[in-house]
Amino acid sequence: MYQTKILSEEYFNIFSGVYNDFRMNSAKDYNFEIQPLDYEGFIEYYKKGFIECILLLEDGIPTGFVAYSTIQEDVIELYIIHLLGNEDLKKKYVLLLTAFMQDVSKKRKSKIVEYPMLGKQKNYRIETESMGFKFVDLGVVKFDMQNQEKIRDILRERPETLPINYKIVPYKENYFDELTSAIHLCFKNATDTKFDPRFLTIEGCVDVAQKITSSFYGKFIDDASKILLYENRLIGFCLSNITEGKIGNIPLVGIIPEYQKTGLSSILLKTALTEIIRENQNGFLDLSEVNASVDLANVRACRMYKKAGFTEVYTYPQAYLEKITI
Ligand SMILES: CC(C)(COP(=O)(O)OP(=O)(O)OC[C@H]1O[C@@H](n2cnc3c(N)ncnc32)[C@H](O)[C@@H]1OP(=O)(O)O)[C@@H](O)C(=O)NCCC(=O)NCCS
Asked: Is residue 116 within 8 Å of residue 316, measured between CB atoms?
């Protein structure tokens, strides 16, 4: 009765209903901040090979799908497993995940798999684990730009008070090389490397920094992206961007290891946040929130966000599969 099948032209018409159901519910059911491509856009990307897709068929009719991409050099990105209805959900989920695993098995020699199990997908943790996936539990934290009390607290604190020889300045292009080295030092041992191996190498960190500062992931806010200097050497960074409409985001924050555990991270984060608040008040920005995602086991990072007034809005397992080594 159930069957999986790689999406092909014969299904382009009847698949639209399932896809549009996913698209319509992507914020509510999966915490998506950015609305997914419309159906025409999805099919166009599919035809170009940017996205791959396997359908779940019930008596020949599509009632679910898995969408993923294998175009990146070292990562297979599993975007979503979406199912219609309430019946046999776990069974159908396993069928789709199994079909995905078979389809990508050859590529797994050179690539890891990363799968943010957002929203309802959390319910399938056990099934996903039984296929060999491991997890990093992430939390999404948010600073509410409409909370006047929190805004007053941040502005009152004057976070720019720093020990002697330390300075916080806005990001400028001439910091790029020092920034990439600092990202590497801060993240090469972080759990982020499990699902984003770019952090393991300098070249990978160049790609991360380049994509953030060139607004690839969202409009980079250079004034509110702060660099921490000690005797004019870059020792910390807090980057800011706008991911969608009114949503601001801190994609990366770090203090290089020898300067950690001195409370500098909170000062740096609050300085970036103060700039965002001021730009919001001046009308240069119009953000309703600033968010960030954080490994829930990273106590210092969680504490840093909490101290700056961020609160947890939801959590999700970031699932990953290591490369096959034989
Ligand atoms: C996250 C990071 C920026 C924090 O900076 P840090 O210098 O290590 O941390 P701080 O000294 O500022 O400490 C932050 C808070 O955690 C507290 N803390 C530290 N260890 C703790 C522990 N084991 N339990 C509870 N609280 C702890 C500190 O006391 C401090 O709180 P306080 O200011 O109220 O005293 C830094 O560890 C880092 O760069 N890590 C690697 C990159 C990363 O994980 N970035 C975050 C995700 S994007």
From this structure: yes
Predicted confidence (pLDDT) per residue in 39-56, tens digit: 999 999 999 999 999 999
For residue 67, the cross-strand partners are 53, 80
Please indicate whether residue 228, judged by its CB atom, sits closer than 6 Å to ligand 1: no
**Given pLDDT bands bounded at 50, 70 and 90, which one contains residue 159?**
low
* 63 CA from centroid of ligand 1 (Å): 45
Q: Domains of the chain by range and CATH?
A: 2-132 (3.40.630.30), 140-315 (3.40.630.30)
Q: Is the CB of 257 under 6 A from ligand 1?
A: no
The answer to whether the CB of 25 is under 6 A from ligand 1 is no
Which residues, including other chains, have CB under 8 Å from residue 262's CB and lie 6 or more apart?
Answer: none
Give the integer Cα–Cα distance in Å for 224 and 253: 12
**Residue having the nearest C-alpha atom to atom 1 of ligand 1:** 301
Whether 266 is in the pocket of ligand 1, judged by its Cβ within 6 Å, is yes
Q: Is the pLDDT of residue 210 over 90?
A: yes
User: Using 50, 70 and 90 to split pLDDT, how confident is the model at 157?
Assistant: confident
Whether 282 has a pLDDT exceeding 70, the answer reads: yes
Question: What's the whole-number average pLDDT of the chain?
Answer: 96
- Ligand 1 touching residue 267 (CB < 6 A): no
Testing ligand 1's pocket by substitution, the residue of 256, 300, 306, 310 carrying the most ligand atoms inside 8 A of its CB is 300
Q: Is residue 158 predicted with pLDDT exceeding 80? A: no
Question: Are the C-beta atoms of 196 and 295 separated by less than 8 Å?
Answer: no
